[in-house]
Write a structure and sequence with these properties.
The chain is of the alpha/beta class and 320 residues long. It has helices at 9-27, 34-51, 57-64, 72-79, 121-126, 134-150, 167-171, 174-187, 202-209, 227-234, 241-248, 252-258, 276-294, 299-311, 315-319; strands at 80-85, 98-105, 108-115, 154-160, 192-201, 213-217, 221-223, 263-265. The radius of gyration is 21 Å and the shape is globular.
Length: 320
Amino acid sequence: MQNYLDFEKPLAEIEGKAAELRAMARQNDGMDIETEAKALDTRAAALLKDLYKDLSPWRKCLVARHPDRPHCKDYIDALFAEFTPLAGDRNFADDHAVMGGLARFNDRPVMVIGQEKGHDTKSRIERNFGMARPEGYRKAIRLMELANRFGLPIVTLVDTAGAYPGKGAEERGQSEAIARATEKCLQVKVPLVSVIIGEGGSGGAVAFAAANRLVMLEHSVYSVITPEGCASILWKDANKMREAAEALRLTAQDLLKLGVCDQIIPEPVGGAQRDPKAAIANVGAALETMLAALEKKKPDALVKERRQKFLDVGTKGLAA
């Protein structure tokens, strides 16, 4: 069943009527409703295009969090062959919010690491809704070191509201683990590309995204804090999340102007959740282009370019 966001309610009504007509036709042989159903389909397609033509930042946040949007595991299953998951940080535990391992991308050996939110209640609880604990970041560090040792390109898939803020995570050094993961991203001498596939929240995202190339799906978001968290701090009112989303400049389009994002990957009309296969294929094409270009660079040049990229963040937008 299609899940609809609040601003998609008019669309839900039209598509629901078309589905009802077709259900009636299946129950009553000889009933001809196809003309009416196709007319409703045409109206729905036009409305969908109109709704997604100019989404506000807050609506982009809702789309980025859509439960039907393809997650990290979906991308790994579709784009990477011979995926061999590697578990644990060799210190405390295995964090299921972070998945990663060796794989082949278009017959190229790579290390792929990402945050997985889960698709149903059971998997979301197991994955902690994609919010990693310190052991998740330390696992990512271990995998990046392994990739660096064997000269494997690293692909990270970012989709998290932020690092887990629980008491246990803080006791085990959450901020230190995030800082070390960010540092490791900046140190590795292999190509590192990151894709924001949904939410890129706070340091929990930066720890995976300090890359040579950072690309974002068209309706993904990337920010220092969630709009709700920002509103709670600035206005003491989480209901002002729409104003916060506007102020944070968290959309892919804003971040491309600021030089934070290097490229925007188009999504199907209505978002990646409407056509996951097409969205995943678009990500695969972007990854191939980026990796092919970066593999030609020398290790020291990759590190220098990556560090300079982050020193230059924001200057592009300020100059404009």
